[in-house]
Predict the structure of Arginine--tRNA ligase.
Amino acid sequence: MSNLIQAAREQVSALTQAAYEKAAADGVLPAGVEVKATVEIPKDPKNGDYASSFAMAGAKAMHMAPRAIAQAVAERLELAGSYFDRAEIAGPGFLNFFLGSKWYGDVLADIEAEGMSYGQSSEGRGRRVMVEFVSANPTGPMHMGNARGGVLGDSLANVLQRAGFDTWKEFYVNDAGNQIHKFAESIHARYMQILLGEEGFPFPESGYHGDDIKELAQGFYEKYGETYRDAPEEKWLADMSAYGLEVNIPKMKSDLARYKIHYDQWFLESELHESGYVAETVEMLAGRGWTYEKDGALWLNTSKLLQEKYLREGKSQEQVDKLDLKDDVLRRANGFYTYFAADIAYHRNKLDKRGFDLAVNIWGADHHGHVARLQAALDGLGLDGSHRLVVVLMQLVNLLQDGKPVRMSKRSGKAIALHDLLDEVSVDAARYFFNSRSATSPVDFDLDLAVREDSENPVYYVQYAHARICSLVARLAQEGETVPAAADVKAGVFATGEEKALIKELAQLPDVIHLAARDFDPSHINRYLLTLAGDFHRFYNACYIRGEAPEVLSARLKLADTVRLVIANGLELIGVSAPEKM
């Protein structure tokens, strides 16, 4: 669980404080002054690896010039045994610290010790987090939005796990409600058209028009023949929806498995209704005074719940009054519960019944207006939805080929399905590209770039760095040179800027994982891997390994192999393979 960047920063503070206390004891600086200094990492390494503002921060309280304070502190710094081999005064009084060989050696040793778990932390404190993602309607094939949501959710769950959370991956199957009714109607219409011809039976205007519906109807016909020709509506609705789901859900599981996504649970919406959990949840809201009846329907007083939520969050009454807040139907006049009622029940199930500390959902940006309403409803149940429900809203995917948008699938004439995309590009490319930007930014997925085998393709560039190192290690092994243990490396031989920059980048992974977990944004990992690969390629081109003096060869070989391990580690987090040959 090492973080040597943070450890070095803390050591700067401790060394500076100790030197100040000595200066105060010597009577050079006033005693008892509490200085709130910052420790930053300068952009230009010529200005040191860490810079303390101690002298400027303490100048006013000490009634002294910052450079005089800096001089007194610098003269009393005891760097022996620390991560630093020297410190200098710069500008108005910055104390610039320069890392020594101990720090560089410790980075390699820590990564060796932690292996593929390098970068893990305990900041999540074992809190239970459910990440729910994709949750596509099982009425048709998964599309590009589902493809992006899949890799975002899967990678985020991996990142949270590494950050010390106990994570659970879940797919919510909407196998009840209006869309399933429409699904069955669509299959029935195509089934009847098989029997009577397309002109002999009307297709519902709001039905699902894809070829997949025709395939389901054909499959149903082949299984049952004409026996449903005169079946009552209640029977064909139930049986055709069940048949369609029995075919589609395994297809979804298969497509997602091909995409390297496996869930801890596929949760059925129908179970919430059949168990009475939706009705019970609505009754709980009613018991807490959050519902009212109008026109035969039961309504949730969403506007009042939202008003209280926004006031708690710091909005003024005047700001809240300007919002166009509306209430929501929970139970229609016909007695059927709405999708919103089921959604509240599902999230109550997550937070209350199953006891997850946090529920994280990956949703399309078109669900923006639903977020605060659901959080407020959970607040109304006493479940603190405003803090325990986190929704990552995901922008659209723009599929490009030959520099132009691709909107249609050759197979169905509809939006391109995930399985169509994976026929065109590798799973690795799809996962890397869909996770290449923050969820709040649209992704331009360039099909031509995704299949290129050169440095312009980011996933190829990162994987090539890994394969290049594997080849190097194998080649040197044939010559009798094996990767040494970190304890046998003389870190003092790392003298070039390329070597030091590469080791500093290796040390960044714990911070990157922290930021990815904090921001619920796994694209931090992609950007890190691209930077690390770039630093490695620069190191490899500038620093010879074969033919160098034994100590240099050994140290550089260990550095290269450590990069290999960290690239494999990062790629694993985002579900991309680390090939040994390319």
